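Q: Hi! Curious about what Protein involved in gliding motility GldN looks like structurally. Here's the sequence.
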Amino acid sequence: MSKKGFGILILVFVLFQTTFAQSNLLNAKRPSDIGVKTAEQQAVDNDKPLEYGYVDDRDILWSKVVWEYIDLNERINLPLYYPVDTTNVSKNRRSLFDTLMKGIKNDEITEVYDDSYFTAKLTKAEINKKLFRIDTTDAGFDEMNAGATNIEEYVDKINLTSQDIEGFKIKGLWYFDKRQGELKYRMLAIAPIAPDVQTMGREDIDITEQLPLFWVWFPDSRNLLHKMKVFNQKNSAYPISFDHLLNARRFSSIIYKEENIYGDRDVSQYVKGNSLFQVIESNKIKDQIRNKELDMWNY
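A: Let's find out. The predicted structure is below.
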């Protein structure tokens, strides 16, 4: 193929992607047509997450499982947090937490577990119990003792929403693929981190512990995460999917645990009382993983 022909092919590809990125915005005859693809577009649409290639166990020369924490207070991680108010945004733009909850509610995500070792599978009812609590005031108990049956005005319902999510924990595997001769990463699970709803907002209990609500087996959520888009600050015509963002590791994280001989203990368990030293230890683990690829080529 000549350079001119190759250039035309690239131009056609870019225009094709732009047409789909606009989601029929310029061709819409009414607002309800925005985001709705035509029959012709759906016929040629091959929009699905990039499939993972098969990796034989014999091709893995080295591997290490690590657990990382994504802090949503960091600016680079804000695309995972917003939008928290979904009133004026499209249906395919939600926060990562709302996306996971939507998938669980609609049975698009079924592999949900209580811990990162996938020992206990959670039901929808068990997950919902972690998202809300009901408090009855003292006046409500007095009304009940007096024989009242309708005490809804004395009942407070506290719901955990996407605004309360403070971060995400992820579990993944770093491995060296000898067939391709490079270090690779594969995400295995993700968990939203939030305060315990049973203690949240209570003045009589001073507990600030952050807990993972549940662990989602990441490959089971990829189809849904690919449908939901993340706002691209540099070019709104090309939104990014959650699946692309997470697989490309376009976020900032810190390693808080690695698999080790001590029962996979956290960094905070053997580096105690000093946050700076914990960060230094985390960076040390990260450097060891990064240098492993270089060490493979030393003879």
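A: A fun detail: Residues 86 and 94 are 7 Å apart (CA to CA).
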